[in-house]
Amino acid sequence: IQNNKIKKDKQSMTFGNRGMTLEEDINASNEAYNLRGVAVIHKKPTPVQIVQVDYPSRSAAVIKEAYFKQASTTDYNGIYRGYYIDFEAKETQSKTSFPLKNFHEHQINHLRNCVTHKGICFVIIRFTAFNQVFLLPASALFQFWDAQQNGGKKSISYQDIQKNALEISYGFSPRLPYLDAVDKLILQIEESSN
Amino acid sequence: IQNNKIKKDKQSMTFGNRGMTLEEDINASNEAYNLRGVAVIHKKPTPVQIVQVDYPSRSAAVIKEAYFKQASTTDYNGIYRGYYIDFEAKETQSKTSFPLKNFHEHQINHLRNCVTHKGICFVIIRFTAFNQVFLLPASALFQFWDAQQNGGKKSISYQDIQKNALEISYGFSPRLPYLDAVDKLILQIEESSN
Lengths: 194, 194
Ligand SMILES: [Mg+2]
Ligand SMILES: [Mg+2]
Known about the structure:
Bound molecules: magnesium ion
Mean pLDDT of chain A: 91
Order of helices and strands of chain A: HHEEEEEEHEEHEHEH
Strand content of chain A: 25-35%
Largest interface: A-B, 39 and 39 residues
Largest sheet of chain A: 6 strands, mixed
Distance between the termini of chain A: 50 Å
Oligomer: homodimer
Shape of chain A: globular
Number of strands of chain A: 10
Helix content of chain A: 25-40%
Low-confidence stretches of chain A: 1-14
């Protein structure tokens, strides 16, 4: 038993996320996908309201006062297999559920609009405690969100995530091969629209 | 003649850009398109390298030192009619040509990658002196870019823009109805791939 435990720890050290944040994992994976010509997907820059900029002579402009703005859309978008891809990435420390307060109404609305226009939309959720990553289709997210609006649960239980999401296993390169799950999602969407 | 001149000035005052920048025109148009459920296209936030942030008690975090980063992609992307849309917007004061130094190599490469994945890619160019706006397909931009790399002209002449681009006329709402030109571009791309 002791030996097995050690072996398992070594494996997760080799293929695990090595203390990277979910965003770092996704960014590295996007770079790998881009380099191989698989997909063009980028993290959008953090929106910042710039108030004051100094222009010192002979050196770069310095932003001296700025504020973080609330993002009106999602973290990532791009193109894959001719499809418009749009998603949000979220981590939770919880072992039992994913809190819906992680989303803002306008992010949900943005995803709804993209789905209407035939975009492939989802959330990538990491349960940090288990180092487990899931791709939850936007359609499932909308159901939990709408239920909450109608007095339902304020979070999605771990069991419901397991039931409704596709699990993404860590790999070597790309570190987080989430487009494998996107392939399955595209199949599901195409089948359900026939 | 005098009368005609006045009439024309009045028209361009009514439907012109009223001193707005090209980006402001496009942003307002994107908002109009989004509200009507026509398309979901957004300007990406300006990429900023944040160095120092203060967290005053009881008020919002203040960015005290940050620098502008060079954009690795383009200004705008989103979804329209199920297509991934990706474009750059540029203004020029020149009356005779559009300088290619307005682009960085990695922006051209980004557009090339998006075209490979079947994205609808282009540049919106405004000749400020004439208040004229054009949609130049990425395929045409690549030709001028590659020619320049091989010792060709460092700019695209106004005549070549007129020949290769689709002109966009100002309207009331959306102020800059550039998706009409995108419809034509999609037709051209679909016809040439058959
Ligand atoms: Mg996030
Ligand atoms: Mg621009």
